[in-house]
Design brief:
Length: 337
């Protein structure tokens, strides 16, 4: 595994009409929110290291740290060529000063408002992929996509994406304007999209940007049974009691496969997602340079048919214990309905 400049030479295209991006993207959420305190200087250094290594896709949300994440990205990109990068932004989540969550607002007037603030915080004149973070049940998806389409026509948005929606919403949105990618959780232990969502996306020519490829660190190979957290994973069913014990036993089975390949568990898990199709771009949520270097090493992992069979045997599709979110959060996922 190396850490050389521009080592990420592989490229993938987001959907039939989207931009060409690096085969791995950097998810920046954890640098500002939801995973406990982060070192800002190390976060900037990690973004620098990713871009210098050839990562061209940066993913954020305007509500990550209530705007902090966008400001962080602006700071990190001051001396980098913006035109070489694709910035993906989620919008719509309503927050308060205590970090609370109060639903989603995807009205057309809200779209225009959120985008104006995003452009100012990022210090840019356009967003490469703009997407509602969650479906707003009070607003028809056609209205939301129609409002983003207007921003595409004005040049302030280049492409439209979606996040955590089901097949019906995907089809309705795509009928208004081409959707380049669906951002959704996909990993060895989160494979629900394989049943209907992934086939529908492929039928429509929509790419997948997969988040949670290490299931919030659970299948990174770095989580231990005694580890405790006071971030949002504390309420995640997969990190609770017997569920955690069971899920970590899956990781140990995966570790045996990784050891034979001479790679880490995290690299094997990321490589598995990469191997599921050239229309899938995994997002890695590295907050530190060492974790980024490890993740980039997945690009060097070649999985044979025998390797994939061994991975499937170690971690069958339905083997995980516990849902991927707590019940209250699962209720807001159109993709789960």
């Amino acid at each position: 595994m190396t850490n050389s400049t521009n080592r990420v030479s592989r490229r993938r295209v987001l959907g039939a009409t989207g931009p060409e991006v690096s085969a791995l993207g950097l998810g920046c959420m954890g640098m500002s929110d939801l995973y406990g305190p982060a070192d800002e200087a190390e976060s900037v250094a990690t973004i620098h290291a990713a871009v210098d290594a050839g990562v061209t896709l940066l993913d954020t949300g305007d509500f990550y740290g209530m705007g902090h994440n966008e400001l962080l990205i602006r700071q990190a990109l001051r001396d980098r060529n913006r035109d070489d990068l694709a910035i993906s932004v989620k919008f719509g989540a309503l927050r308060d000063a205590d970090g609370g969550w109060h639903g989603n607002d995807n009205r057309p007037e809200a779209v225009r408002n959120f985008l104006a603030y995003t452009l100012r915080r990022l210090g840019t004149d356009h967003v490469d992929v703009y997407r509602p973070a969650r479906l707003d049940p009070a607003v028809p998806i056609e209205e939301t996509i129609g409002a983003i389409k207007e921003e595409v026509e004005k040049g302030r948005v280049r492409h439209i994406g979606l996040s955590e929606v089901g097949t019906d919403t995907l089809r309705r949105a795509h009928a208004v304007h081409p959707i380049v990618d669906l951002q959704i959780e996909y990993s060895l232990i989160s494979r629900g999209i394989e049943q209907a969502i992934l086939p529908t996306a492929r039928e429509l020519g929509i790419g997948i940007t997969a988040y949670g490829v290490l299931s919030r660190g659970l299948i990174s190979g770095h989580w231990t049974p005694s580890r405790r957290t006071d971030d949002f994973r504390a309420i995640s069913p997969r990190f609770q009691g017997e569920n955690l014990d069971h899920n970590l036993s899956l990781v140990e089975a995966l570790r045996a496969v990784a050891a034979e390949k001479g790679v880490t568990v995290a690299q094997l898990a990321i490589a598995w997602v990469l191997a599921q199709g050239d229309d899938i771009v995994p997002l890695v949520g590295a907050r530190r340079r060492d974790r980024l270097t490890e993740a980039l090493g997945a690009l060097d992992v070649v999985l044979t048919g025998a390797d994939l069979a061994r991975i499937e045997a170690a971690v069958p599709a339905d083997a995980v214990a516990g849902e991927r979110y707590a019940p209250a959060l699962m209720a807001h996922l159109d993709s789960e309905h």
